[in-house]
Specification:
alpha+beta; 6-stranded antiparallel sheet; two-stranded antiparallel sheet; extended
Length: 191
């Protein structure tokens, strides 16, 4: 099982997990942590021992909610980059498709899975997984995403002048280019 597949399965387990902290519990733990770290009355060894003991208490923070469409939304953090998802063979085999946006970068990406009615967003380490209840809810989310992100493009092919035009954001004589747009229809599920 790939690293991404294993991670996504653990994210989905958050829906029913009971061994998690609330946000408030995590903040209380962090407050105690920083008090110990800045306690001038403790030696470095005492700080190290107390912090080590605190790590035994750590539980994942459960961030599961229901959105305005009735879908389950799970939020997590994963210190990685979008290419972890892009180049994972199992991820693609499981039906995940890249949903192109004008914001795509190593720190941002969106993928959809019309087989499982899932939508995944990665933004600077923040992972959001939308679990849609059925094809109708999934299609509504895709429609909303198309409106929000606009037309996605896969790539732009252009001559040197076209490249200069894109960089200068103005008219450059002799500029030629072709924009290949993503077919958003492939993301919808036939109901």
């Amino acid at each position: 099982m790939s690293k991404v597949t294993e991670y996504l399965q653990s994210v989905e387990r958050d829906i029913t997990r009971t061994d998690c902290w609330t946000q408030e519990q995590a903040e209380e733990w962090a407050s105690r942590y920083w008090k110990i770290m800045h306690d001038k009355s403790l030696s470095k060894e005492e700080i190290k021992d107390r912090i080590a003991a605190m790590y035994g208490e750590v539980k994942p923070v459960r961030k599961v909610e229901t959105d305005e469409h009735g879908n389950t939304v799970i939020r997590r953090f994963w210190s990685t980059e979008r290419y972890e998802f892009d180049f994972d063979d199992d991820f693609r085999k499981d039906g995940w498709l890249q949903f192109d946006t004008n914001q795509d970068a190593w720190y941002f990406g969106v993928w959809v899975n019309p087989k499982t009615f899932r939508i995944l967003t990665y933004a600077e380490g923040d992972v959001t997984l939308d679990v849609c209840t059925d094809a109708e809810h999934y299609n509504a989310e895709i429609k909303s995403m198309c409106k929000f992100y606009g037309e996605g493009f896969e790539y732009i092919a252009c001559n040197v002048e076209g490249f200069q035009q894109v960089l200068l954001e103005g008219k450059v004589e002799g500029a030629e280019g072709t924009v290949v747009r993503q077919d958003r229809a492939e993301f919808f599920v036939q109901v």
